[in-house]
Structure formats: C-alpha cells, structure tokens
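Here is a protein:
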Amino acid sequence: MEQHELVLNLHGEWPGPSPSDGLSLEEAFLPELKKLHEKFPRLRCVLEHCSTAAALHAVRACGPSVAGSSAPPLAAPFLNIQPAGTITAHHLYLTGDDSQTDPLAFCKPIPKKPSDRDALIKAACSGGEKFFFGSDSAPHPLASKIKTQSSQAVSAGVFTQPFATQLVILALEEAIERGVLAEDEVTQERLEQFLSRSGRRFYRLPDPATKGPPRIVLERKGETVPTSIRSADGALEVGLSKSMAPVFSLGWLTQDDF
C-alpha cells in the first residue's frame, strides 16, 4: 500500500478485552498506530472517527512525513501530513452518558467524556489539516433502535447524514456557549477546511475552483431536525440523532447563482 500510494483507513480498536482496566479499546489500539507509522512512514493512514483526546494526541505525535506523488506538477499542493484522523458530527456533541441513555445516540466507537468531546471540537475548528470530517453516519431501522426486546442488543450507529453539516455547526455553537471556543474561532475558512478541503487534499483530489462548482448556503429558517425520516414508499423509517434541535436550512448554489 505504501509503494502504490494507497490509503489505509483504520477503525482503531483493540481486539478482545482491554489490556488495562479503565482503558477504552480505542485508546488501547493507539500504540499500534505508532508502530505502524514507524514501520511504514510514507503510508498515508487515516484513524477513522476519533473519539478521545488521546487519539488526537497519537495522530499528532506521529509527526510529519510526506508521501511521494507520481505526478510532479501536482506534487507540491498535495503534500500531506501522515497519519490523519476523521471526526464525526455526532462525536462533537455526544458523550458516554448520552450514548448509554438514548438508543439513537448509541454508536461505536462509544462517545467518551465531555473533555474528549471538547478536545475533538477544538481539533475540528483548529484550521489544521490533520483532522477532517468523516460522517460515519449509520442508518438503522427505527424498530431496531428503540423497539428491541430486553435480550436484544441495540444496533450501534448514529444517523446524521441528512443534517451532517448543520449538526457540526450546531456542535460548534454549543461549544461557544460552554466557553470551549471563542466565537471568532469559528470561521467560514475553518469550516471549509474541516468539512471539505483537508479531506480532499489528503486523498489528493484537486481543490475546486473558486467559482464554478456547487456551494452550500446556510440560512436560519426555523428548521429543526425531524424525529425520523421514511423511505419514498413509507416501508422504512430511520430515526435521526438530536431530533427537534434547531438547525440551519441548507441549500445549494450552482454556477448560475453566482
């Protein structure tokens, strides 16, 4: 994979019981990430859906390394820092308490402490390129999330996709209210970096032109996240995370709108 410049995407979790009491399976895996990076320093690697401050530290601690490019004219704009990590919308607002009490908030990796959530928020809004958005949105039939028998496990997964961008912004707004972020830290440039540009650069996709490609526009129109959505034929119903929360309405601007 390193030789052919392929990306290794990792759900970093220790297999089996945790080797240490009080250590999550995700945190127990982190030394393996370091070993992997040391053995293959040019391998582009993504630690998916980071859920702890320790995961952020592990990704940063691997340090800079540059993967070669087979296209010299494009090499400079696409220099990466490996490995990288993705952060979901729901890990920016959920904690372990939420996941344990609300079936629609139950997911893996399980959200952790408020301090972990706040560390993820700061990383997402840092303007750095090491961390970028990855939805890990998991739709499950509503019945499998809330109408289970006592002996039946609830399906793990949080469905955010229809409102993913808005939920990221809502999490940042809530962080400002808690004093985790200053209002001037949440800028359009940093949002674009986290939601789009950093991921595109890591995967060596060209940056979109300044004008031409579709863009999103966010407006306050009194919209809230619905409790659930149904398929076109009504046969399937899927519950949504953070239902009834007030969010921006999202629309698209095309080239004709500029």
Remarks:
- Residues 65-78 have pLDDT under 50 and may be disordered.
- Helices lie at 25-39, 53-61, 72-75, 96-101, 114-124, 142-146, 164-178, 188-202.
